[in-house]
Design a protein that fits this description.
This protein is mainly α. Helix content is 68%, strand content 0%.
Length: 194
């Protein structure tokens, strides 16, 4: 599996072709998810082959945005299929990666440990100190699409999302759950003031 080569090719393609209005679903987000996948996988004791599959899924998970936001996970699977067999991945590995990409679709429904890791990595920021910085980028993007029209709309959406979201891996539950709750409490306080 030639992951490093693919990483260079796909990040370059995303840098050059992702619509500029995607302030959240950007190359920075993809790199963040790859980094989170590595940290969670390490803590969860994942083997070397599965780690490459995880990083590959993280690399491809939002490539579908090259063709629009609607059903982007399915499109991301198609794009992965265009590349992976040529770069030394087997059909079986491709199927695993497609499963991991689909596990990032909201609401998340991972079916195995690797899918849980990718799902948690994709929303790792919910339980981090940079939650509001990253959240502002998503607010900007959703405003652009007309999904939210005010800060109040956005905070209500975040409140609902954080309340319904849960981490799957032991690592994320232990490392992110508490901070995610703190972030939710801050949003609730903001809503009371608005």
């Amino acid at each position: 599996m030639e992951y490093e080569k693919l990483n260079t090719i796909i990040l370059k393609r995303l840098k050059e072709n992702l619509p500029e209005h995607l302030s959240y679903h950007s190359v920075m987000h993809v790199k963040d998810v790859i980094e989170s996948v590595e940290k969670i996988a390490d803590s969860e004791g994942v083997n070397a082959e599965d780690l490459i599959l995880l990083k590959t899924a993280a690399l491809f998970h939002d490539t579908g945005f090259l063709f629009g936001s609607k059903n982007h996970e399915e499109k991301s699977c198609d794009i992965a299929a265009e590349y992976l067999l040529e770069y030394g991945y087997s059909e079986e590995q491709l199927d695993k990666i497609k499963g991991m990409i689909m596990a990032t679709k909201i609401p998340q429904t991972p079916h195995n440990h690797l899918e849980e890791i990718v799902a948690d990595a994709d929303l790792d920021y919910l339980g981090r100190d940079d939650f509001f910085i990253i959240g502002d980028k998503l607010f900007e993007e959703l405003s652009m699409f007309g999904i939210v029209n005010s800060e109040r709309d956005w905070n209500l959406l975040q409140e609902k999302f954080l309340e319904s979201h849960h981490y799957f891996t032991e690592t994320s539950i232990n490392n992110r759950k508490e901070k995610k709750q703190e972030n939710l409490d801050i949003i609730k306080t903001k809503l009371k003031k608005l």
